[in-house]
Records
---
Amino acid sequence: MKGDDNTVLTRLYPLSRLKRCMVLKIVLPVVSLLVSLASATLAQTAPLQQTNFGPPIKLGAFGNGKGLGTQDPQWSLFANGNGVNLPAMARIQTAFVAPGSPQALQIFAVAGHKHQCGVSTKVAGDAQVITYEADVQLRSSLHQTAWQFAAGDDSAHGFVGGFNVLPDGHLQLITKGSPPQPATTVPRDVWKHFAISFDLRKQTSEIWIDGQSQVTNLPFLAPAKRVAIFQFDTFAGGDDTACLANFVAHAGPPTGAPAAH
C-alpha cells in the first residue's frame, strides 16, 4: 500500500526523529539569540573600573604623601586653591561602611577650609553610554556643606553633568542654569545608591538614586566627546564628612541597584 505523504515520511524518518529535528530547528536559533543578547548585556555592563576601597588599600590616610596621589593609583585627591590640608582630606575607615564593602573612603569638608576638595578618577574607554555608580553616605554636622557627585571630561573643558546635594538635602542639577530638583531629598546618616548615566549620542544625562530615576534627558552642561573623569567632593565652609563605597563605572545604563541602607 503506497499510503499518503505522511506515511512515506514516517517510514523514511521515524516520528520521534522528526520531532527531534523540528525541535532543534526551533530551539537552536532561540538559544543562539539568547546567547547573543546575554553577551551584549554583559559587554554593556562589564565594569570599566570598580573599587570597594577594601584591601590592599590600607586604613588611614588615603593620600600617599606625594602631592595629590593616593593609595589607589587610579584615584587622585582633588583640591581647588591653596591651603587644603591634604593628609586630613580623605581617609580609609571602617566606622561607616556600606553593605558589601569592608572599608569606605571618608572625605572631610574641614580639610578644605575655604576651598572645594575631594577625590577624582579617570576611566578609560570610549563607551557611548557610560554610568558612574556608588554607595554614598552624607554625615550630619553643625555646619553642613553641599556635596557633589559629578563627571566631566577634558573634551568639555570641565563638567558635563551630575548633581550637588545641598545642605538641606535637595538636589541641584549640573546643567545650564543649575536648576534645583525640589522633588528629591537625600537624608543624612544613611547609605544611598547614587548613579549618573551619560548618553554621548544624545548629549544628555540621567540621575538615579536607590535604583529610581530622578531626572531624565538632562542636557550636558557643555558638549563632550567623552565623559571620563568622575569626582566626588565637598564645597567650602562646612565641618561635615561623607563616605564613598562600592564605586563602579560601566558602559550602558544603570544596573538598577537597590537602596544600600
---
Amino acid sequence: MTVLTKCAIGLALVGSAEGFSPVGTPARVVTRHASPQMLQSRRDALFAGAAAATTLAATASPAFAAIDEDANEAAMAAIAKKAAAQNAAADAAKKANIKTPEEQQAAQDEAKRNIGIALAGSVVLSVPFYYRNVLRLATKIGSGGEDDGYNTYKEGKKGAKKAKKVVETSKPSLGKSASQFFFKRNFDDQ
C-alpha cells in the first residue's frame, strides 16, 4: 500500500467515527446563549457514514486487486515445505522414544518397587502414633477377649520405654473428690 492509500483509509475511518458520534453538550448542562445550539441530525450522521464507507471502498479496492497469483502460490509452497519438514522431524522423534517390551517391563517393575517402599515407609513412620493400641490388641487376643488391655498399660510420659501394670486402688477419682468437697455429699461406689 502506498502512503496515499494509508492516509485515505485512516481519514475514512476517522470520518466515519466522527459521523456517528453525537455532537453537543450533555442534556443536564445548562448553557446560556442568545441562540439555541443545534445538534447534528440523524440524517446528517447517516450521510457522513455513507460518505466514509464510499471513501473506504474506493481506496481499499485497488490494494486487493494487485495480488500476484504466482507469489501467492510460491508462498503457500514454501509454507507446505516447512510444515512437511517439521512433521518429518516430529515423526522421527516419536520413533526414537518408543520403548521395547523389556524396557517397559523394567519401568513397571521399578514403579511397583517404589510403591512398595512408600507403603512400607508410611507404616513404619506411623506406628509410633498407635503402638499402644497394637499392644492392647495383642493383650486382648492373648487373653481370649477377657482383658481388653486398657487396665494393663498405663499412659505414661512421652519417651517412656514401657508402661507398668496398673494396680486397682480404692482411692476415689479426682472428679468424685471435687464433687464431695463442693456439694458436701458422700458418693459411694455401687
---
Amino acid sequence: MKYKYLCAITQKYYCNKLYVESIRCGGELKLVRKREEEYLEMIYLLSKKKGFVRVKDLASKLGVKPPSVVEYLSKLSKKGYISYEKGEYILLNEKGKKIAEEVYRKHEAIKEFLVLLLNIPEEIAEEDACYIEHGIHPETMNRIEKFIEFVKSCPKKVPIWIKHLRKYYVSGEYPEECK
C-alpha cells in the first residue's frame, strides 16, 4: 500500500486515489487538487500559528524535502494561490487563503460532527476529518453544518436522543424510552 495523502492537521499519511474536487470559493467554482488543498491548508495553519511560513517549516510539516516544496510552490504561485520568491516567506494570496479557510472550516465541522453525534474520540475524529474533508460533497457538508448548528442551538442543550445514542454506544442496549 502506497501512502499518498498527508493530513495537515494530524501529520499522518492515508492511502487514497488522486482525484480533483470542486470547491465553491468566493462564488467562483475552482478545481483544486487534494495535494493543493493540503499545501494551502498547511500554509494557512503555519501562518496562523507563527505569523510566517518558511520552506523548511512547510517541508517538515508535510514530510517532504525542501526542493519538492519549492517545486510545488512554483505550481501554486502560477495558479495565483500564493506569493513566493526563493529565500522569502510563503504568503497566501486571496484565492489561496479562501481555499485554505474553506478546507479548514470543513475539517473542523466534520471533526465536531464525528465527536458530537458519533461520540468518536477527538484524536480519531481529527484523523477521519483529515481524510473526509477532501472528498465530501457540498450538500453533505451543508447538512453536517446544519446538524451541528441545530444541536448546538437546541434549547435543551443536548437532545435526549443524543443522550440515548451515547448510552447505546457504551452498553449496546437501547434505553427504555427507545424500546
---
Amino acid sequence: MIKLMISTLILIISMGLPACAKDGEEFTKSIMLYKNGKIDEAIKITKSLADKNDIKAIYNMGVFSFLGIGMDKNYEAAFNYFKLAADLGSMDAQYNLGEMYYHGFGTKQNYEESAKLTKNLAEKGDKEGIYHLGMLLKKGSVYPRDVNKAILLIQEASDKNSAQASYALGKMYQEGDDVAKDYNQAIKYFQKAAELGQLKAYGKLAYLYEKGLGVEKNHNQAKILRSKARQAELSKDSEIIRGITN
C-alpha cells in the first residue's frame, strides 16, 4: 500500500479557497517561496495560516513534517496535521492519514481505520482510494477476499491513471498472481506506471529487457532502465504520501 506519487515534491490538487483574500495572497506567496527554495520563509507563512485553520496550510504543514522539509521529520505532528485537515474535508489528507494508519507512522498501526478511509475515498472516485480498496479485497486482510472485484477495481484505478495500480497490475501479470502470467501485459503496465511517475517500474522493466521476457532481449536498454530505477531509492517516504498542494 505504498503510495506516493512523488520522487520530488510537486504541486498537485487544489482543496478549496483560503478564508479571505489576504490569506489567499499569503498562501500563494508561501507556495512561490517554497518553489524558489526559500523553505524557512515558506514554512513561517504556512504555519501562520495553519494556526488560522486554513485547510490547505494545515495540509502542507503535514507534508513538511512528514518529509522533514525545513525541519526534522516528525510523523506524530504530520499525523495531527493530516487528521485536522481530513476532518475539515481534505481528500488528500484523508489519503495520507489512511497511509499513516496502515504503516503505523505517527500513530498505532490500524488496518481497520485505514480501510475505512480508503473505502470513503473510493466511493468518492479517488483513483488511489479505488486502487487500495482493490488491494484490500485482493489480500482479504480487512474485508473478505474477492479476487474478481479486486482486479476490476485495480484495473479501474489504472484506467484513471493511477501509477500504483498500473505497477500492481504489472507485477500481477509478471508473477501470475491471481491472473494468467502474461509478460506482454506486464510490460504494458510497467511502462504505464513508469510514465506516470512510479520509478520502481523501471527496475521491473529492466529485468524483463535483460531476460527478454515479453520484449526482445536488450542489455543496453536494461542498463538505462536500472539507472532510472535507482532514483526510487532516494526518497521512499515521498512515495507514501501525497505532496504539497497549491
